[in-house]
Every structure is written in structure tokens, then in C-alpha cells.
What we know:
The chain is an alpha+beta fold. The protein has two domains: 7-97, Phosphorylase Kinase, domain 1 (2-Layer Sandwich); 102-145 and 192-306, Orthogonal Bundle (Transferase(Phosphotransferase), domain 1), CATH 1.10.510.10. It has helices spanning 7-20, 57-76, 113-131, 133-136, 147-163, 172-181, 227-230, 235-238, 254-265, 273-279, 281-290, 294-305, 310-326, 334-347; strands at 24-31, 36-43, 48-54, 85-88, 93-96, 101-102, 194-197, 206-209, 212-216, 223-226. Helix 9 (254-265) runs antiparallel to helix 10 (273-279) and helix 11 (281-290) packs across helix 12. The chain is globular, with a radius of gyration of 22 Å. Residues 32-224 form the Aminoglycoside phosphotransferase domain. Pfam families: APH.
Amino acid sequence: MASATSPAVASALSDLSSALDDAFDVVRGPIRGWYNHVYEIKSSNGERFVLRIPKQAGFAKYANEGLKELKRVQELRATTKLPTVVRQTNKYNVLSYVPGQPLHAWDADKLSGAHRRAILDDLAEVMYATWTVSLRSAKGTYEPMDYEKWLLNEIDRGLIRALDGASGWGDPIHYLYRRAMMEKILPEIEHGYASVNYGFMQPLDVVVQGNGLSGVVDWDDARLVPGPAAIHPPLFIAGIPGWKTGAPEGMHFWKDREYFIEAVSNIDVFGGLITDLLTSSYDRQFLEMSLHNKLINDEYVRRKLQPAPRAFNVAALAQLDDFVASHEAMRGARSVAKLRERLNKLVA
């Protein structure tokens, strides 16, 4: 771990001082972060900032992709509850300081219903601003992004991973089932525009002060994706089986989820487009998250894909043909041949 006196911290502070013509000192840190060592620093006049130094060289590029999307949202200036990117380099980045305390868990025993609703009202505004950047942009909309193609690519990445034998990602046949049933969860409304997806929001990403939201931090996972892939409730109230929320076992937040959707609907000025996608998001979010989290994958397979009727396997054979046609490099793979042999036996 990079200590407050490490060469990496000293180098970052020196570079920052030169760039902003000011002196900076570490106040606190390192603080736990997924991809970064995080420090609270202050300038000579006492203004506070957040210094983030990547834990590995590859993490810097990943985080900078997320910060690019944070800047995209900031350009809209529709909300003040976001950190500002002060300086961004390949070795460190500096953001404005968001005052308050992060939520450690979305827990009904520790947060009253009124407190949770106040936070959700503020969070609805932040997320709505994030989702609608391309719809509001004065520079015009972004290139259209088709959700069906995006989701098919995500499923195929999972299928390739399973065919390659990646540990814990289950049976390749289940990804063919997903391909076959994908059409059932595609939104019926227009979904060709791009939207900023925050990523896997957790309570620690939500900073509160008093009874309300102070800001949303940690934008490393943010990416530009098709609207239906972005517009979901925060994971800690989404009710996705297998996701660890930090709340006591058996504590659910379906009413909070419904309240959040209602809060968004009250500010949705795009003919209900965002509200409709949010209301119909559960099956999409469950499938999408099953491709990124092993525990959710296990739950998805158990709840959605088992036991598999013969029709599933007939459809899976057709999907395997389509997959191979789209991924020529996999055509001669032994794992593909074994999968085809299994399916032929299942439908015989």
C-alpha cells in the first residue's frame, strides 16, 4: 500500500503543486479504494481535495475512462452533487472533496424510512442527470448505440470465457440459453441512444451529510453504453439475487426501489422514456449482472435457466451455429465441438 510518505505520493504532490502553483499536504490516508490508494489532501489555504494513485499501472487507464464520463456529465451542469476533476494524469488524479460520510450499508435498522427517502430523492436527480446527458447535450446526441447488439456481445464474452474454462463461470450451455431468451427482455420503447452508466453503485459510493445526499463518488466504472444498460436502480436497492448489499440477511428494499422509480418519474421530462426503462429494468439488470458477478450468475442459472426444457436445447443449438458464424476463431475449438455433441444428445 502506498503510504502518505511514499515516493508515488511525493511525486504526485510535487507535480500537482507545479501545475496549480500551490502547496499541498496529506491530511488523511491512504483510504481504501477498489482501484486506487486514496488520500485527502489540502492546499495552502485549507481547501480540501482527493488524491487518487492507481494500485497498478493498468488501473490508471481504466479509471481515466470513468473520469471521462464524469466530465461528460459535469458539462451538463445539471447537478452539483458530483466531484469535479481537478487534474488527471496517467500516474494520479485529483478530484474536489465531497464533504460528509459514506454510507456503509443501506440498512433499515440504521437509516429511517424518512432518511432513506431523502437520500433517494437526491440520488434520483443525480442519476437522472447522468442518464440523460446525451438527450440534453447542446452538442447533439452521441452515436446511436443498439442495446440488442451490446447485450449479445456481453453474453458472447461470457460464453467464450466459459468455453475457455474460466473457473466459477459455469456451464457454456447457459450462455446459449441466455442468447435464446434475450429477445424477451428487450425494451419495447426506443432504445437507440447512448447513456452514461455509473457502474456498480454501492453504499460506500454514496456520501451523505445531515439528512441528504452530499455527492456520489468513485466513477471509475462509468462508461457510455446503450440507455437500457445504464438505466437501473442502484444495486443496493435493486433486489438482485446474489448481490451482497451489506444489509442484514433477509432485509429487502422493494419499497425503496419503487420510491426511487417514482422520484425519477417526477422529474422525467422525456415523455416517460427514462421511467419506462427504469420500471422494466429488473430482468435486464439481473441478466447483465449475472455476466459480471459469479454469485449472481449462480442465482440467475438456478432461478431462470433450470430445469431446462427440450425447447431450450433446440434453441441453443441454433444459437451455437449463430455464435460460431460470428466468432470464426472459435469454430475449430474442442470445447465448441464438445458443447455441440452435448446439445445433440439432449435434443435427440
